[in-house]
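Pipeline run #58 for the internal structure catalog. This entry was flagged by the ingest filter as a single-chain record with no existing model, so it goes straight to prediction. Upstream metadata was stripped on purpose; only the residue string is passed forward. Reviewer on rotation: M.T. Logging verbosity set to normal.
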Amino acid sequence: MNDKMKQFLPSVDLEKMKAILDIEERFVTGKITLEQGREEVARRVGSLRPYHLAFIEQTMTEHTDDECIRENMAQKIKLFEGFMDYSRPQLPADHPITHYYEENDELKRLLLQVEDLVQYPVIKNQWIDLIERINEYPVHYKRKQNQLYPVLEQKGFDRPTTTMWTFDDMVRDLMRETRRLLDAGDDDAFVAECQKLVYYGRDLMDKEETILYPTSCAMISEDEFAQMKAGDHEIGYAYLNIEVDHRKAAAETAAPAAPAEGFAADLAQLLSKYGYSTGANEPLDVTTGKLTLEQINLIYRHMPVDLSFVDENELVCFYTDTDHRVFPRSRNVIGREVMNCHPRKSAHVVKEVIDKLRSGEQDKAEFWIEKPDLFIYILYVAVRDENGRFRGVLEMMQDCTHIRSLKGSRTLLKWADEAGVPAESPSA
């Protein structure tokens, strides 16, 4: 039994939860009719909330990676209609959950157009803009996976990470495949893929709006949602024009540091006495020089590569906050189990890399992704201390597209935006 999730929910009657699960299982397997199921819900359960279904999924059912895809949401809605409130929660216009609903509203409108157009012979020009517009939507999934799921994980509700993520990726892949088939001119396969996209896209949105979002509103505090906004803005939105200063948003949502008092003040004074710096502008002794904390953060922010560090406990401790980030990151990833930062289908690869680096069997692992006009290089390195003890994994990621395009040599200075004759380079 997952007591942690229960702590963050308004009310959970375990006997009622068992009754809901019993009725639902017998209805889904055909042992009772819809009418009989609804009669039992009225008699044994009465009213229920969306988070009750989430609690049952988390604590009372067996886990499978594709369960979110297989689950028939339409059946569940029919069974509990009138007993559970499916209405959209009333939220402020700038609330993170509001933006998820707004993106869904636009995708629903686009899928209606798809449903209409598939009835007619494919004319490519009629489809190009529509398919491109649909393929803007997956940033919605990136925000969920990097922002919403980690907060729910911390509260004991990890089913979205372990099962809905798989469904997210499946629908995203359907969107990509429709674009590929349209470009390839394979009309029959394109229409079939569009029909699958309409079905599964709507099903996933139903599951988000019926269970995920109401449960999130029940479990996550308003302060936590406020802190989520900066990361949401960093990753971005589909279809929504929300202009926000990312750095200012992050500063506004960060908790202010309390003044040092008591033991903390005494410790700071003691460290200072023996030459250990405590302020952001105090020089720190690093291996090959002295840098202030401010300088260290500025160096990380301006690095031409993305860095992430996972400690020996497989928890994400750090990432560089660069403006050119290859893949989305947000502050909610800090403290998250690294296995939960990746889709289920690649989890076994992540585990193998960490295990072999930890054991010393390997010291690094290289990957690269090559697509038209894009080349990304990824390197994982085992971090060990002076005694050879494993302390974690450093991930380095870089978009090398421009580097791979370079030819010959450049030994003279030439600015990227300069059209004139380059100046001479400094001599070594």
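catalog note: The first strand starts at residue 283 and ends at 286.
catalog note: The CA atoms of residues 96 and 229 lie 7 Å apart.
status: ready for reviewer M.T.
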